[in-house]
Amino acid sequence: MEGSTLIRKIHMVCPLCDRTHEVEERRRIATITIKGDKVSYEERFLYCVNADEAENEFVTGSMANENLLNARNGYRVKHGLLTSDEIVAIRENYGLSQVDLARLLGWGEATISRYESKAIQDEAYDTMLRLIKDNPLAALEFLKKNADKFSAMKRLEIRSKIVEKLDTYGKEFLSRQAFEAEYASFDTKCDSNGFALLNIDKLEAMISYIAEKVSHLYKVKLMKMLWYADSLSFKSSGLAMSGMVYRHETMGALPIGHYALMNLERLNVKEEACGDYDYMLHIYPTLDMDYSILTKADKKILDAVVEKFKDYKSKAIIDYMHEEIAYTQTGQGDIIPFSLAKEIRDFL
Ligand SMILES: [Zn+2]
Q1: 72 C-alpha vs ligand 1 centroid, how far in Å?
Q2: Does residue 3 register a pLDDT over 90?
Q3: 177-186, pLDDT tens digit by residue?
Q4: From start to end of 35-161, where are the E strands?
Q5: Pairs from 168-177 (Cβ < 8 Å, separation ≥ 24)
Q6: What pLDDT was estimated at residue 348?
Q7: 40 CA to middle of ligand 1, Å?
Q8: What was the pLDDT predicted at 310?
Q9: CB-based contacts of 237, cutoff 8 Å, min separation 6
Q10: How many angstroms separate the CA atoms of 192 and 54, rounded?
Q11: What pLDDT, in 10s, does the model give residues 111-144?
């Protein structure tokens, strides 16, 4: 009773004196020992003025639960662990159920439910929760690691919920990762990549640079212009510019991973309707692109490619490329080696 504060009076049947009267609901700071440690917390209780001093307090079932939760959260705060409310907030931020978050982290199904209601998490579990707290990319890593815990449909659903939480940086990182994955088997300098490793920063600068100078730049035309830029660079210096690997396709040279390339978050690509059911990808310059990654020699080559092809329609640049030795001497689907690419007709 001493050191407690009155919250309100409740008219009820009192289990201590068996009478109906105003029972006081009060709160105070209490201490409890958890895991051998003394913890202070706020406790709520009911008080009967009619009963003996020795036994004049009681709690309802839900009050007892709440007191215990407060005590455990007191322990968590004291030990720098996430509180149950913070764990709920992390889960709700991703829009996940308790079972789904537990599976995502590779834990037993009931683990999150227990942490949100009663049990105190181990430090290792706490660290994992903090990892994903403000970092959807880390959450995606867990999803990859524990993919087998979900059906394919459920995995996609959870993935899209996490991706929704990505900021610009996260989206950019993810789009680069997808493109880089296409080049996993081209991690050494060789004839296929023109003795240059994939350089996405440079490639983005090349594309935006071309887009600044060519007003109607569509995907097919851009792909040919990139091949010409890489081939000219290899011809003049023995090194390609972007590090991309190109295949012989019906429409001419096409870089590996070109779908992922067009999805790079930093590129300014817009879908434009073309007929009723189709669309074309129109490439625009990126507003704040940093061109300092391009050398003087790179720019000279890009300028020459722009000057040569800027007024070509897609069909015309495809026809032009079809005449190159690199095309006539390779077959459908073959990688076009730069040793052949350097035989292009000169226009520098
Ligand atoms: Zn009473």
Answers
A1: 30
A2: no
A3: 999 999 999 9
A4: 37-47, 57-58
A5: 168/265, 170/136, 170/137, 171/265, 172/264, 172/265, 172/266, 173/137, 174/137, 174/140, 174/265, 175/260, 175/263, 175/264, 175/265, 175/266, 176/200, 176/264, 176/265
A6: 64
A7: 28
A8: 95
A9: 297
A10: 88
A11: 999 999 889 999 999 999 999 999 999 999 999 9
- Would you place residue 237 in the very low, low, confident or very high pLDDT band (cuts 50, 70, 90)? very high
Q: How far away, in angstroms, is 22 Cα from ligand 1 center?
A: 8
CA of 5 to the centre of ligand 1 (A): 18
Note whether 161 and 198 are same-domain residues.
no
Residue 72 lies in a domain: no
Q: How does pLDDT run across 263-284, given as a tens digit for each residue?
A: 999 999 999 888 777 789 999 9
Residue 271 domain boundaries:
190-341
Asked whether residue 221 falls in the same domain as residue 255, the answer is yes
Query: For residue 229, what are the CA distances in angstroms to 200, 237, 258, 266?
Result: 15, 12, 16, 20
What would the two tokens of residue 22 be? 């105003």
How close is the Cα of 14 to the center of ligand 1, in Å?
Answer: 4
Domain match, 52 and 94 both: no
Number of Cβ atoms within 10 Å of the Cβ of 212 = 15
- Whether 174 is in a domain gets the answer no
